[in-house]
Each structure stands twice: as structure tokens, then as C-alpha cells.
């Protein structure tokens, strides 16, 4: 048990570092464009990534999860699987980008400059689709440090070159060229790493293999599409397909950028948890249940603290990052951040459903979440504008989590939840009281964060948020350096 917990902790930490190195460049560019140019330039840059995020899912999204699951069981036989997945991604990515380019030129209401930026950044769906597969393979092969090194190299090159060009007077189109070049560079390096240290993928389309995988891929693909639509529909609706309301997208993206920095954690944690559940679920169901419970506690208490903290210090965060360019982002962030709680809690449930082979049961909750998101955006945006979009995202994320959670309780594990929920409720009340008192005491926001962290942790421990054996296990993790020496049972 300790070995798998240590592997989760170590692998997640490395994967989070990798994601930070990879994604921080876009955040830095957005902030620098706000400082050096205008909010409109920054907004144009952000709306381009809305299209990129949406269209990447159409390139057979979900294949990386399937590859991770298969390669974790038999790494050697994944040579053919990886080659087939790469070929399928290439064909779909080229078709999808061609459709985007045609729509931009012929039918969109954007001005020529916005079309140029979206067209440039939209092209990265091709290399990014390949890179996602390679990274999933590295995770399955327990080579997460390859991802860290790759993202460090490409991220550093992107940041240095792009930031220098912005300071020298570059605009969002200039930065888009840098992003495209470094994306292709990162994809090529990842391909060479796979070929040199493992094998060269067998690039051939095998019908027999696809007959085997099509049933498993279909629900994953549908879930990827629905997740992408849910994550980007609000911004697309705010922009209206034209340039007039693009500043609203910038304000919303400024808040979403802060949220996306936190979403690196569940995005990487889901890959690590999948590998661990795949290795323990069928060998020892009791061990897998205890792992699931520990992950749920960590997700709940960690995400809840982040949401509470950011809600109360949102003005300071937005002012520090964007100066006075996106003041409207403050109330957006205070609402939007609560979607992070439900997203974190969904991770252990979604990975467990995939491991148990009932991932198809998550399609209906995802579809319901998308429909709720779209419906609330259409209903609330005319009245509440960007705040309505934030409310829609939080509600849809909550619906998907609770639906999937009850599926897990009914079909996989049934367990009491009071030991997790009541400490969280009590700790939340105490922490809110502290933050409200701080408005009267007028502490600086730095002191507020430090004391608030102490109050939260102390209250959580006082109310029995963590079980004694779990605290003992993590205490041993801090003391033992060689994770191979901690194999055993809790």
C-alpha cells in the first residue's frame, strides 16, 4: 500500500511540474500582452486557445487514456497500438484543422487580424495531439521525468523567445508563431525519445486492432468531446463568433487562467491514479478501496481550501496578475473557482470507473453536464453576462461529479461518507468566519493567507478530517527517502 501511495505522490508531483513548465508560457504571454499591449491583444490570444482546446478533443480525444491503460499492462505490445493511434490522430487532426481554416476564412465574423491569430494557434492541434499520446506512454512506462525534461526545454524556449519579442514590441500574432514552432519542436523530441529508449512505433492501420479498441474508445471519445464543449462553450458564446465582444472573453479568460493553473493538478493526477488503480484493483479490492478513500480525502480537503482562499483574496490575485486591465475578472473568479472543487473530486471516481470497465456509464452524466452548461449559458448570459457563464460551469461540474459518485457507490464500492463530509463542513464554517473577521482586523493579504492556512489545517485535524493510519503513512513518507524501502501494507 505504501509503495503505491508513494508512487502516486511522486508521480503526481513530477507530472504537476511538467504541466507547469508546459503551460506557464501561455499564462506568461497573456499577462505580458496585458501589460505591454492592450487587453484586446490579450483577449485575441486567449480566444485562439479556446478553439484549440475545443478542436483537440475532436482528434479522437480519449486515445491517450486508452494507451495509458493498455501500456501499463503490457509495455512491449504497445508498439503497434501507439503507431495506430498516431496515424489516427494525424488523419483526424489534419481534417479538423482544415475545417477550422475554411470556417475562419469564409464564414466567421472575426476581423482579419483575429483570423490570423486563431489560424496560427489552431494549427498546434496537430503536434499537440501527438505529444499527448507520447506523454501518456511515458507515464505508463513510469518515465514521468521524460515529460518534465521535455516540457522544461520547450517551455523555457517558448517563454524566453516569446517574452523577448513581446517586450520588443511583438503582438499576439508574433507570440502565436513562437507557440507553433515550439509545439512542433516538442512533438519531434518526444517522438525521438520513444524511438531511442523504447521502440519506433509501427505506423500502420490495422483493422483487427481497431475492432478491439473501438468499443473502449467510443465512450472516452464522447467524454472528451463533451468535456471540451463544456469547457469552451461559454467563451465561444461570449465572443459571439465575432470581434465586438472579444474583451468579455478576455475578462473571462483572465479568471479562467487562474483556474487553469489549479486544473493542472487534476489533469495530471488522473493519469497517475489510473496507473495505480489498474495495478491494484483486480489484485486486491480492499487495497484499492483504501487508496480510493485516501485520494477522495486529499481531493476534498485540498480543493476546498484552494476555493475558500481564492474566493476571499481574489481582488489581490487579479490586481497582482493583471494590474487594472481586467477588474471584471474578480467576481468571475470568485464564482468560477468553485468548479475546481467538483473537478478534483471527480478524478478518483472517473479513474475507478475506467479501471472497473464501466467508463461507458460516465457518458450520460457528462452529457447531462454539457446540456446543463449550454442551457444555463443560454439562459444566464443575456442577463448576467460573464457571471452567468461562471455559474453555468460550476453547476455543470457539480452535476457530473455527484452523478458519477453515486454510480461508484452503487456499482463498485459502498462506503460511509460522513467521516469526510462533516469535518469539511465544520472546517469551512470556521475558515469563513476567520476570513470575515479579517475584513474587520485589516490584516495584509499575505498574513491572511498564512493565518488562514493554519486555521484551516488546525480545524480539519481537530474535527477528525484525516484518519490516524493515513497521517502515520504520510509521516513515514516524509522520513523515508528510498520509496523502494517502503513496500508493505498500512
What does this structure look like?
The chain contains 17 helices and no strands. With 490 residues, it is an all-alpha fold. It folds into 2 domains: 414 residues, no CATH class; 68 residues, no CATH class. Helix 11 runs antiparallel to helix 12 and helix 11 packs antiparallel against helix 13. The protein is globular and about 65 Å long. The chain starts with a helix and ends in an 11-residue tail after the last helix. The C terminus is likely disordered.
3D shape: globular
Relative helix content: over 70%
How many distinct beta strands?
0
What is the averaged pLDDT score?
Answer: 82
**Domain module tally:** 2
Q: Termini, distance in Å?
A: 6 Å
Uncertain runs with pLDDT below 50, 5 residues or more?
477-490
| Rg (CA only) | 22 Å
What's the arrangement of secondary structure elements?
Elements: H1 2-36, H2 39-58, H3 63-73, H4 78-106, H5 112-122, H6 125-140, H7 144-167, H8 172-197, H9 207-239, H10 246-280, H11 285-322, H12 329-336, H13 339-355, H14 363-411, H15 418-441, H16 445-462, H17 468-479
Helix pairs in contact: 1-2, 1-7, 1-10, 2-5, 2-6, 2-9, 2-10, 3-4, 3-6, 3-10, 4-5, 4-6, 5-8, 6-8, 7-8, 9-10, 9-14, 10-11, 10-12, 10-13, 11-12, 11-13, 11-15, 11-16, 12-14, 13-14, 15-16
